[in-house]
Design a protein that fits this description.
Elements: H1 2-20, H2 22-35, H3 39-47, H4 55-67, H5 71-84, H6 89-101, H7 105-118, H8 123-135, H9 139-152, H10 157-169, H11 173-186, H12 191-199
């Protein structure tokens, strides 16, 4: 009996709380819908309370649209969020994901640069710019960005693999070997590292 009363009180308290804080109720509903993969329902729950000038609702909508592969709408909401809070790295990282989904490579690099102004050691932005420079055959530039990551995360798999390829492209063979060997410490069966090291024997 006591258990039933306690449960009833808990449910009543939860109902009162959600009624007093409608934004909380909307976010709660959006999480429930998202977990069920009902992204349209999750988006509708947040749009119902979105006044356009809320950082939190725009950030949430950006994520939900991105998760639903609607990169154009995700980009729009992340842009609004980043304008509302210009020093928000999370909003810019979300914008970067949406921009990547839209294959806007120049804009993507610009977003990464904005992130580095706020957070110079941001791993995602540094890696993104390093990879972009690498594919553009700007190996010295790539080396600069990836080195910033390795100073903080010397045992990072992606950074070591990219640095190894960058050093190889710069004809710094001995240094490239060292980074590929580090890659094999992290991932002993890495096909790229094994193939390159065997070719350099």
């Amino acid at each position: 009996m006591k258990t039933l009363i306690f449960t009833a009180l808990l449910l009543f308290t939860s109902f009162i709380t959600l009624a007093q804080y409608p934004n909380q109720a909307a976010f709660s509903m959006s999480y429930t819908k998202e977990y069920a993969k009902d992204f349209d329902g999750a988006i509708a729950a947040i749009k119902a309370i979105n006044t356009g000038d809320s950082y939190f609702t725009n950030l949430r909508l950006g994520w939900l649209y991105y998760s639903n592969a609607n990169y154009q709408s995700a980009e729009q909401h992340y842009l609004i969020a980043s304008k509302l809070k210009p020093t928000s790295v999370e909003a810019l990282l979300g914008l970067a994901n949406a921009t990547y989904g839209l294959k806007k490579w120049t804009e993507l690099n610009n977003v990464y640069q904005k992130i580095l102004v706020i957070d110079p050691n941001n791993t995602t932005a540094n890696y993104g710019l390093a990879l972009s420079a690498y594919y553009a055959k700007q190996y010295v530039e790539s080396e600069k960005f990836v080195q910033k990551i390795l100073r903080l995360y010397p045992f990072d798999y992606n950074a070591n693999l990219l640095m190894a390829g960058t050093k190889l492209s710069l004809a710094k063979i001995s240094e490239a070997k060292t980074y590929y060997q580090t890659v094999l410490l992290i991932s002993p069966t890495d096909a790229t590292a094994l193939e390159v090291l065997n070719s350099l024997k």
